[in-house]
Amino acid sequence: MRMRVLGTFLTAAAIAAAGTAVPAQAAEGNVIGAGAPGTIPGRYIVTMKAPGGLSAQSAGSRKAYSARMSAKQARQLAARSDVALVEQDRIVHAETTTYKNPVWGLDRIDQKSATLSKTYTPSDDGSSVHAYVIDTGIRITHNEFGGRASYGFNFVNYTTTASDCEGHGTHVAGTIGGRTYGVAKSVQLVAVKVLDCDGEGELSDVIAGINWVTANAKKPAVANLSLGGSNSPSLNAALQKLINSGVTVAVAAGNENVNAAKESPANLAAAITVGATDAKDKRASFSNFGTVLDMFAPGVNVRSAFASSDTATASASGTSMASPHVAGAAALVLDAYPTWTAAQVRNYLVAQATTGKISGLKGSPNRLLFVPAPPAAVVIKTSGLTMTAGTAFASQLALASSRRGSWSLAEGTLPTGVTLSAAGVVSGTPTGPGTDTIKVRFTDYVPTAVTRSIAVTVNATSPVIKTAVLPDGAQGAYYYQQLAADRTGTWALSSGDLPDGLSLNTNGLITGVATTSGSSTFTVEFTDGWGKTARSELTIDIA
Q1: What does the pLDDT read at residue 24?
Q2: Which site among 160, 375, 457, 532 is 20 to 30 Å from 511 CA-CA?
Q3: Where is the signal peptide (predicted)?
């Protein structure tokens, strides 16, 4: 029996050490999904119990394997005390029905009324969030993505190039974060390829892709799974672990027009399960339904990017198209509240949803995705800054209310030696006095930018003459003494007289040969480079 951890290969010796060998006459247990439509002969997913016999609620602590074995071996393995469950691997498919022609979905989700406003104004752009598209891959060079799309991993071919040969994943990515068709227009998109060129894939590969995101996601993060099939405890356990790790997950409800309660991953309570509506706010004829749904989103004739070229677009219908609307909305929420848990994001979107507008629900919640309008622009409170030349300065620019964003200088020039950081801290040591007016800009996460003019005043302190006493001199002897101040500047005699024969130059040097004896009292004046002056009365006695 050959086995591998999903995402990590094990040697035969390691498997034996783990105690997974199956006795020839072992008891037999139940294999989940055995022989069901779409199952893969000879392929099974085995979930081991965690040390200490943790319960099913601790699924995130257990190891899952993809294994090739006979049906009998699978039943024998399912009976082992150290095995939590054995599930037959199967084909998983993308939840799409048709590709056709035009964009109304964005217009619908930013307003409560069914009358479209022909505008879309999102609450922000999602720039700080990574969105993991677990699908057929992404054409990352598409113009819609502007360099924001990248490859994660390809679990179909086990390579690092997760390109899209079907189109589904690119379309989904475009709805999450395309610059024209996307909900979160600056989100970072990551392709995790688990479905092939026919939009189908093995359940074990889907689980491997989910586990890869759990291990590698850059937070804050969302993930979208526009795929599904019949109930799978293994798939749901992997997805629960991803959600527990802090990633918000949106999933398609499915396109069979049945109750989604028996569909995975649609029936996972911790995920945001999304049904599809049309432009008349009616549940799409194909959309699955039921109480496991959290909300609906546009899913009929949704235009987005397509994989056939870097400029290609297509319109598609399916819950596959509805789910990425919600994934994009979750990215907007996380951009504003990056520390929120997946449950907080889900609860917020559920609470914000438009209610009472959808028809044909069949027991589903009457909630339609709503992306709130941007918050009101913040007000910059700081109106002026006062600092002192030659003295270190630091001050935080202030807003009237808290908002995440960055600061920049919009107009004018700060005093020499002073800078403005993106965090809004004005700091440095100004080199000289003066007054000026600058304009600062604060750009929040929406992004909305506000500016304000700020008066900047740099005061100069008066200089200090450090010389307090001058030494005595002798008649006929050479006299030499340097006056001192706390900065550079020029010196002059303000009043009185120096002893006969002595003089003061502009550098503050008193020199000469005294020709007469006696005491002389005089006042010197020091002027610094900013025009500030100081005076000091001094005396020289000549013996």
Answers
A1: 53
A2: 532
A3: 1-26
